[in-house]
Amino acid sequence: MPVLVASDLDRTLIYSSAALSLTMPDARAPRLLCVEVHESRPLSYLTETAAGLLGDLGDAAVFVPTTTRTRKQYLRINLPGPPPTYAICANGGHLLVDGVSDPAWHARVTARLADECASLDEVRDHLFATADPVWVRKHRIAEDLFAYLVVERELLPEEWVKELAVWAENRGWTVSLQGRKLYAVPKPLTKSAAVYEVARRTGAELTLAAGDSLLDADLLLAADRGWRPGHGELADSDWSAPTITALPERGVLAGERILRELLRATRAAPGQGRGTVTCAAPPRESDRSP
């Protein structure tokens, strides 16, 4: 009985230097392993302890990296442990199987987006028209599925973000602010739908999940058990649910704690050798696919 572990990556398992939150004395700081290099510079890290835990988790469960990153951005990450058979990119828009996007899944996603929400062109044009160049550093379109801005966070007007969220809500989109990136994502584009598909293909009867942002909420609620760190959008809003464990740790040590919890729950699952974990009711068929 396989256990499926679906986890967000950035600010959940891996961290940029700005997000590490190394608040302890220097001599007590954990040893770090770089897992991503971009333009010849180290970009993302986890602790060496977390690297070992992730390797163990990959051996014990069906580990599925589940990210809003594009495929190109995801593929430059070199995670410890066995290479994942499945990965979810572009917030569920691409389901990678051995590193290659499943064309049938992508076609289902794009068809649903065309039917259920405003077009990417409309949202992109609104962002260009209303975002102030004073605090916008980059405009980006990701995989022809959603848009995001790279902003100067300290200059970003809170009222503009609120107004954008209302505008997007009325058009079937959602807004998420993560660090220096502000995302506008179609509501039907979800990580959870892709995770349900992986569960169907693998026969997993227990799903565990972790994430830190608003775009991870559907993933956490779809899992039988979920964990969130003490930082990020969900922590800032004190978001939780009966099956969610809110951890106190922040920064890279939160990633280590999350991996400990995921590995412990995997090993305690039925058929894994000891203990039991009660599974949530299976999702409705209408929730399973885009």
What does this structure look like?
The chain is of the alpha/beta class and 290 residues long. 34% of the residues lie in helices and 24% in strands. The protein has ten helices and 14 strands. It has helices at 48-60, 71-75, 103-116, 120-130, 158-169, 191-202, 217-222, 233-236, 252-268, 285-288; strands at 3-7, 32-38, 41-47, 62-65, 86-89, 94-97, 100-101, 136-142, 146-151, 173-178, 181-186, 206-210, 225-228, 244-246. It has a five-stranded parallel sheet, with helices on both faces. It has a four-stranded antiparallel sheet with strand order 8-9-11-10. Helix 1 (48-60) runs parallel beside helix 9 (252-268). The longest helix has 17 residues, at 252-268. It is globular and about 50 Å long. Residues 273-290 have low confidence and may be disordered. Keywords: Hydrolase. This is HAD family hydrolase.
